[in-house]
Amino acid sequence: MTKSKDESAPLAPQEEPLQILVVDDEPAHAEVVAAALEKINAEPVVVHSQKEALETLDARFFDVVVTDLMLETNDAGLEVLRAAKRKSPETEVVLMTAFNGVETAVEAMLEGAFNYLQKPLDLKRLRSIVQKAGETTRLRRVNRNLNERLDEKFGFDGVVGASPAMLKTIERLKRIAPTDATVLILGETGTGKELFAQALHQNSPRKNKPFVALNCAALSEHLLESELFGHVKGAFTDATSDRVGKFEYANGGTIFLDEVGDMSPSTQVKLLRVLENREITPVGSNKTIKVNVRLVSATNRKLEEAVERGLFRADLYHRLKVVTLKLPSLRERSGDVPMLLDHFMKIFAKKYGKSIKGVAQAARRQLFLYDWPGNVRELRNVAESVVVVDFDGVIDVDDLPDEILAAAPPVPAPLALPTPERTLEPPTLDVAFADVRGSSVPPSISAFDGAEVPGASRIPVVSSSASAPGSLDSSRTLKSLVGVSLDELERVFILETLRSTGGNREETAKILGLGERTLYRRLKEFAQTDAAK
């Protein structure tokens, strides 16, 4: 007799957990739903009101939203449905409703709901429906991504990042790409300027024409002119034949000039003439050649200062910067470090035939807190290094390069709690969140904006000392622990770790060894405790 397939069978082990938002104003019922869904390899986030649901949907994406139809008002669940579909049309919404709400639930399905369940819930049916909804969501996203990448080799898909700074940059890039405007890309070394230049080209009308990149700092003045404009036979020693330059070769396409600030004054004049007249003159020739090329240039120098010092032509500078694209350093988008690390480790694990199961908590802390002066290029090199030297499938501290171990500050920092003789003015829950507001806040934290936390109470200060990483200085700190409750200590560690990660809730949970839903619940409890005081 053939066994029937369990409707609630978990997803295949290689699948990423389903991201699910559970919305129910009955906390006990919401926890039952969340616990049931964890059995199908899901990571539920629980909220208890329409307002919390809308804020959380604004903060991040979910595969499935499971919401009660009746929250504060009769149509609150419908508002959650509409908000979820506005934010991500692929996201599926499953409604929970009492018997007398079936009519409204059917109406909601006409607005795009995936299905509805009557209370009291059949948990097996809940798991089956949510799993199918999640699979539908992911299939749609895969199809969408494939369609977006059909004609792209280096399109936006190659640009990894979800921090506000990176999302803002990508959005600007998307607006610039379809135009024919000259673009100047600014940013520190290693931020990925050539990758963004490629993305501009591959998402422009010129994508079927050549993309040619040239580093102006890597060549001498005469060689650079020859590379750019070509030369004729006999133009100089060793010029034994005619040579087509990059501008002529890239005709109809895009030419990317990296480190354009290192160009000599005479080459600057010739480049300016190309931009003004759309024609080049090969070295040693009197014949001009018409070219139609989009110019994208990049530099890590401050060209305004070079213009003031007479090292760079002002007229060329203004020609190059018709549109500017400023790339954030990795320090400004530290929330992207875990995503970039995982992305590069997958690439190198495949290249070297290794199986990397994950990154140990201590190693992840060190990598997150490192300043990355070499930006994404340095992180990519480190990812390759740790994959090469690893022998057990888990990246740990012993796999990290010495410079990261030497430069990253210890985490968590030792506690220096207030003694009876000295009371410090500690940060509040509100202050802890205020530090991570603004452009540096990753999507995962914006739902916890400190402005929404009323009456936050005072907590002890966490500060540095000479103690070993992760330990308490027994000579001076243990005495100050007398009279401090475990709840207060937990609060200190959670809020200060949240501050150290720049407000990244996912990374904070990993550092503390907590589930993300547990961390969310503890933060909610802090806020509720403060509100009651």
List key phrases describing it:
alpha/beta; Rossmann fold; 14 strands; 5-stranded parallel β-sheet; 533 residues; 4 domains; 42% helix
Q: How is this structure best summarized?
A:
The chain has 4 domains: 18-148, Response regulator (Rossmann fold), CATH 3.40.50.2300; 156-326, P-loop containing nucleotide triphosphate hydrolases (Rossmann fold, 3-Layer(aba) Sandwich), CATH 3.40.50.300; 330-407, Helicase, Ruva Protein, domain 3 (Orthogonal Bundle); 429-532, no CATH class. The chain contains 20 helices and 14 strands. The chain has helices at 27-37, 50-59, 76-87, 102-110, 123-149, 164-176, 193-202, 221-229, 246-249, 265-277, 303-308, 314-320, 337-352, 361-369, 375-389, 402-407, 429-434, 486-500, 505-512, 516-532, and strands at 18-23, 42-47, 64-68, 92-97, 115-118, 183-186, 211-215, 254-258, 279-280, 289-290, 294-299, 323-326, 358-359, 394-395.
